[in-house]
Structures are given as structure tokens and as C-alpha cells.
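Meet today's protein:

…
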Amino acid sequence: MIALVILASTSNLRNSTTLQGVMHTVCGVWGERITSLITALYCFGTCLTFLIIIGDQFDRAFDSLIGPDFCKTWFLNRNFIMPVTSVLLILPLCFTSKIDFLKYASVMGVFTILYIVIIIISQYFSGNYKPGEIKTKPDNILDIFNVIPVICFGYQCHVSVIPIYSCMKHRNLKHFTIASSTAITACVFVYTGAATFGYLTFGSNVSNDILENYSASNPWVLIALISMALKTYTTYPILLFCGREAISTIIKDLFVTEETRTKEKFRRYIIAIVWFALSVVLGICLLQSTLMLDPGLVKLEAKLKIGLATVFLILGSFLFGVVLTQGVERDMTSSGSKSLLCVP
């Protein structure tokens, strides 16, 4: 929440509409370019993740309804289902000039998550599941640092928050703080409810994707699986929008001398199509300079802000190092992993 408010208040200085625009305000043109590049890479990687999630949900549904050999039927294989459904449900949402158009699709995503949480809680009380060991503390203190990045990913909205803020009817910090606080609070209760009751239901037997623990032969669970895929369809365009604008900023800054509406529209469509095509192809393949300081920075308030920013950077670097090291260690020592459905 602190980071969200900082971003919003900084965007007010020049009415910035993107994260890279905010960085241009505080760090100049190179800050904007570097942020654009990082944002594009982050959003592209997240879009790939969303496509994999879509394929996973359909695999779970077909496996429960038809059996493990469902992928031998070409039109049920994720290599067909994922790209075709993405073209029909994602691509048409990728060309909007403003992010506020996606609010209508996002409403469905909100209700989808609420439905899934209700299913998880109801299954805890009504399902006849035998949980595995239920831990009350981590095996290793370093496991705590493995959890933090997952939580940060679950609550991240910082890349898209500036475009959303720029489209608010009442663009001011008061309304933004109320809206974002309400959203974050809702996420806290939803995530905590799903995590608590899901873990109490299965204990150590719980899967990374908790929906894998339920049989899709249950029609309510089947609806949850399909709903999760549909929710992901509505989230992908939001990240594509942010990544598309980041790439557009770099192109416009380096190669465009005179901007026109026609050029902007052409660039927007081309970037969206190329982005979407690459992400679908890679999604399938995966399954197979001198710092000039302002004199004002010597003030106490500025020093506190710099100190806070330093803490963010150090903490982020530390978490990255710990998770990367543990990930490499786990890959080197692992004797095997759970096989994926329909993946050779």
C-alpha cells in the first residue's frame, strides 16, 4: 500500500499515465527507458504464466471427465485448446487504447475468485478428505523467504496501477487510497480464506495449484476449473496493455519524431499482435550514467525517502538471492518431479 500511494502521488506531478512515465518524472529519460524495458520483460513473463495456467485448468478438467488419454484427441490437447481459446477470448481485448475498457471483463474475474474460495471453504466442511501432516511452523527458517515472493506476486498490481489511476473519474489520492485499500483488504480475506481452509483440508498433500486436489467429476469443481481459466483470460490483457505501452514508449522515444493518431494506432495493433503471437508460441514451447543530485535531496524528508527506497532494493535483492539459491539447490538435489498431464 505504501508503494501504491507513492506511485500515485508521484504520477500527479505530471499527470503520468504509465509506470515508465512516473520514472521519467523522477529519473529522466533513461529512467523511463530502463523502466519500460523491465516492465515489458516482467509483463511478458507473466503473460506466459497465464497461458500455462489456462492449459493446466483445461487439462485437469479433461483428465477428470475423460481420462488420462484425453490429449490423444487433437481438439482436447492443450496445444490446440490454449491458442484457439486465447485467440477468441484474449486477442480482441488487446487493442484498447485505455485500460479502463477492461474493467467490464475484470468484474467476471472478481466473481470467479469469490466462487473458487466458496468452493474451497465448502469442501472443507462437506468433503470427505483425509489431510496429510499439518505443519505449524516451517522446516527451515529460510522457507519463510520462499513464501514472500509468492505473496508479493499475489498482491502485485503496481505495474498496472498508474494506468488504472489515470482513468479514475475522481483522480485524487483520497479516492485512490480508498479504492486500493478496499481492493487489498478484499484480497487479504479471499487469499487467507482460500489458503487456510485449503491447507486444513489437505495438509501436506496440498498441491501448488489447490484445484488439482479436487476431482473435476464434481460439477461444482469443474465449474471452478473452467472459471479459473476464464478469469485468467481477463487478466492477460491487463498485463499485455502495460507491456505494450512500455514497448511503445521505447519505440516512440527512439524512432518517432512526429506522432500522429494513425501512427499510434498502427503501432498499438502491431505490438499487441506480435506480443500475443510470441507469448502463445513460447507458452506452448515451454511445455515442451553520472548521477546528478538535486540540492533539495539534502533535506531530512528526502533522506528518509532515499532510505526507504534503499530498504526496498536491499530486501528485494536479498529475497531474489535466497529464492534463486534454494531453487537451484532443490533442482540439483531433487530425485524427480511430478509429471505433468499429457506432457512427454
DSSP finds ten helices and no strands in the chain. The two ends are 43 Å apart (CA to CA). Residues 289-294 have pLDDT under 50 and may be disordered. Residues 112 and 228 are 7 Å apart (CA to CA).
